[in-house]
Every structure is written in structure tokens, then in C-alpha cells.
Write a structure and sequence with these properties.
The complex is a heterodimer. By secondary structure, chain A is α+β, with helices and mostly antiparallel strands. Helices cover about 30% and strands about 25% of the residues of chain A. Chain B is flat, with a radius of gyration of 21 Å. Mean pLDDT of chain B is about 70; it is low at about 25-50. The chains are: A alpha+beta, B alpha+beta.
């Protein structure tokens, strides 16, 4: 069966979208829908990017002590991140943005501009107040919010809802995936979990449909400033955790898979596994001593 | 346990519905410009930042760069001084070919012949940097 695919850069990675239209006369519509799906990524990036001083997020972060109205495309992923911070008691904390900036994760991937914020190093997610009724954000102290663990997942989910009427589609945002329907052979999508060390092989493969798989790992993005530090940073120690080498989560929504893979990566084995089990989702992880751990009935 | 699981699904479902209910998707190109301008004025008044000087000329620019597999080309669209789109030119809309022809190692390495796709830690866009810089240099207002 014919497929249609396209790739663009967004959110500092390569976004690839593939659609199995299901019928030849749907090709034109598939092309339009793919373009809309890419627009979703750009739109969420413009709202939620920490690397763009003019994003809605960074403009809002410069306002302390007064409620600022924010759009749903920023409000919703932030709300999800705060729920995750709450349930992990701050092991996952979206106010990690300042620490990330200070460790060199502050350069815009297109313009090369670097962001430097002045903010309160003691701030935590409890200094962020979202008002559901007025749709406002209130910061008690200057802080830098990072939505790196939710915004891409959310964009994938929104893009998926643009493509849901086709026989099948795959959205691959640099290794975070959502597989909808069936592949071009009419089968479940077969997805591999990349081996963190032997990069051409897979830890495991899974057959999925209407599910997301997101992976958090420290093996792709290293700090330019500090040895042994990568882009996932413990908000309290301001260093990278070393319980896991790779955490992959399988969930019905990419925002869930994205946030839970980062949260589990930040926690010790016992707490991380409990977090995944309680959410009713599944995980495939590799611990720092190369043990493969399957959680939640895989 | 079941309730915990439901909570996250409800959050995701509601988040998607809320963004769609805001209804800006279809009118994005018209709606963002006045809104963004209004927001900027409000926030600038509060933070007394200098007025915005444009960095780029609006238009469509293509740039070329080298990576380990050879040359790679991107096409960048700039509107209202913002980078609105970065397309990998060799990978424009195409039908039923191999997915990864013309993409750099970072992308192809993460793939495998035996599966549809591979999930891994998010790779960066470093392989595209030269091509992007080439295109932005043409767009820059000197």
C-alpha cells in the first residue's frame, strides 16, 4: 500500500511523519494533514521553547508576582508537568530550566543564540501557581520553566489527532514515537527499543498500535561544560542521575510516555518502577549495570 | 491503581480537547501576528525592553551543508522575523520509498532494517547545523 512521508526540523530534532492513507484517493488529504501535523509541532515549539527568548513560555517566565494569562498550548503541558512533579514529590520538577541553562543546555538549535536568565536557584515547582478558571500563570519567585519532558509528547499527541482518520500513521520525533492504526502491510507497527551502547541493535522489539513509546537516555546529549552531565538533570543535585542508562515507556499518549520516561530516569529503581506500575503503563529500562528491567506486564 | 491510571489519561485527553477548543489551529497564520504584537507591547511596557529590531528578511531560503554522508540541504521559511519552517529538502514529500534516503547518520543509525521504527534518546539536529546557518546567513539583515 502507498505511504506518504515527510521530515522537518523542529524542537531541536528531526520530526518524521509517515501516513498510510488506506486508499489512493486519500493521498491529497493525507498531504494536507501531514502539513497541519507539522504546523502543530511549530506552534507548540513557539509556545513552550526554553531556547527562544520570545516564546510565550520565556516571556511569561520574566513576569514574577502577578498572574499572566497564557494560552492552552502552554497551560496544558505545564499543568501536566506540575501533576508529575506533585506525584514524584519533586524528583521531576519543571523548574529545572535554570540548572539546565547553567550547564550549557541553553543554545537555540537554529539561531545559535544562547539564553541566560537571572532566577532564583532555590525555586521549585511549588513556586508555580496555575489558575484553572482564569487560565493564568503566577510565579512566586523568578524561575525558568523547562517543558522538555512534556511539550514534544504533547505535540505528538496533537499531531496524532490530525492523522487519526487514516488507516495508519507513524510520528517519529527524534526517537519518541506514536504509532497509529496499522503499517503499510496491514500489520501492527513493529518498533524497536534502541540499545544504548550497540546503537545498531535493539534491546527489544514490540508490536503496537495506537500507542506511544518514548525513551529517555543520557547517551545523546552531553553537557558542553561539565563532564559526566547530560541533558536530564536532577533538579536537586543539579547533576545527571545514574540509576539508569535508558528508560522507555509505552503508554496510550505520548505526553504520558514522554513525562514518565523522564520521571523514571530521575528516580531510583524502586520508586521508578512503582511510579510506572501505578500509572498502569509499561516500561523497558536498562540500569547502569546493564540489567534490562521490564515493568508493568511486558 | 486503576484510578491513578485513569487520572493521567483524563489529563491528556482534556489537554488535547482544550487546545482544539481554543480553535486557533485553522486561523493560526492570521491570529498569531496581532496577538503576538499585542503581547509584546504589554510585556515590553512591563519590562522596558528595547524595541525589536528585525534579524531576518521574510522569505524562503535554502542552505547547504556537509555531513559524513555527503551534502544536505534545508529550506527555511521566515515570516515576521520568525523561523516558521525548516524542511529537509532531499526529504520533501515523497511516496513509498525508503524513509531514510538522504538523511544523516544520526537519523539512519537510529533505524534498523527489521523494524518500522526505533525509539531511543532524542538525537540532536547537529548534523543540519551548517545547512541551517547557510540559509540563515542569506536571510540575515546586515
Amino acid at each position: 500500500m502507498d505511504t506518504l512521508s515527510k521530515a522537518k526540523l523542529a524542537m531541536d530534532t528531526v520530526i518524521r511523519i509517515k501516513v498510510v492513507p488506506g486508499h489512493h484517493r486519500l493521498l491529497q488529504e493525507a498531504e494536507e494533514r501531514i502539513n497541519r501535523a507539522f504546523m502543530v509541532f511549530r506552534s507548540i515549539e513557539q509556545a513552550c521553547s526554553r531556547f527562544d527568548v520570545n516564546s510565550e513560555l520565556m516571556r511569561a517566565c520574566r513576569e514574577t508576582g502577578r498572574p499572566v494569562p497564557i494560552s492552552p498550548r502552554l497551560f496544558e503541558p505545564l499543568k501536566f508537568a506540575l501533576a508529575m512533579a506533585e506525584v514524584t514529590d519533586g524528583a521531576f520538577d519543571p523548574t529545572v530550566g535554570l540548572a539546565q541553562e547553567e550547564l550549557g543546555f541553553n543554545r537555540h538549535y537554529l539561531t545559535g543564540e544562547t539564553a541566560r536568565s537571572t532566577a532564583d536557584r532555590l525555586a521549585s515547582f511549588r513556586d508555580i501557581v496555575l489558575n484553572e478558571r482564569d487560565r493564568t500563570l503566577f510565579l512566586r519567585t523568578p524561575l525558568v520553566i523547562d517543558l522538555g519532558a512534556v511539550a514534544k509528547g504533547f505535540a505528538i499527541d496533537l499531531a496524532a489527532s490530525e492523522l487519526k482518520d487514516f488507516a495508519g500513521f507513524m510520528i517519529d520525533a527524534g526517537g519518541d514515537l506514536y504509532a497509529g492504526g496499522l503499517n503499510e502491510r496491514g500489520e501492527l507497527w513493529q518498533v524497536g527499543i534502541r540499545h544504548p551502547i550497540y546503537k545498531h541493535s535493539c534491546l527489544q522489539t514490540l508490536d503496537i498500535s495506537n500507542q506511544s513509546i518514548c525513551t529517555s537516555g543520557g547517551y545523546e546529549r552531553k553537557s558542553p561544560l561539565m563532564k559526566g552531565v547530560h541533558h536530564i538533570i536532577d533538579p536537586k543535585s543539579r547533576r545527571s542521575p545514574n540509576e539508569w542508562i535508558s528508560c522507555s515507556i509505552i503508554a496510550p499518549f505520548a505526553m504520558m510516555a514522554d513525562a514518565f520516561s523522564t520521571a523514571a530516569f530521575l528516580m531510583n529503581a524502586e520508586n521508578g518502577e512503582r511510579l510506572i506500575e501505578q500509572a498502569g503503563i509499561s516500561g523497558i529500562m536498562m540500569s547502569s549495570n546493564f540489567r534490562i528491567v521490564n515493568v508493568g506486564g511486558i | 491503581m486503576a484510578n491513578m491510571s485513569k487520572k493521567w489519561i483524563v489529563l491528556c485527553t482534556a489537554a488535547i480537547a482544550t487546545v482544539y477548543a481554543a480553535g486557533y489551529w485553522d486561523t493560526e497564520s492570521q491570529a498569531t501576528i496581532p496577538n503576538a504584537a499585542a503581547d509584546d507591547q504589554v510585556l515590553q511596557a512591563a519590562s522596558s525592553e528595547p524595541s525589536i529590531n528585525n534579524t531576518y528578511k521574510d522569505g524562503i531560503y535554502s542552505g547547504t551543508g556537509m555531513n559524513r554522508r555527503g551534502s544536505i540541504q534545508v529550506t527555511i521559511t521566515i515570516e515576521q522575523d520568525r523561523i516558521m519552517d525548516v524542511e529537509i529538502s532531499d526529504f520533501a514529500m515523497h511516496y513509498s520509498e525508503s524513509d531514510i534516503v538522504g538523511l544523516p547518520d544520526e537519523v539512519t543509525q537510529s533505524q534498523s532494517a527489521t523494524v518500522d521504527n526505533v525509539s531511543g534518546a532524542t538525537y540532536s539536529t547537529a548534523a543540519f547545523e551548517d545547512a541551517v546557518q547557510d540559509a540563515l546567513a542569506q536571510a540575515a539583515i546586515h
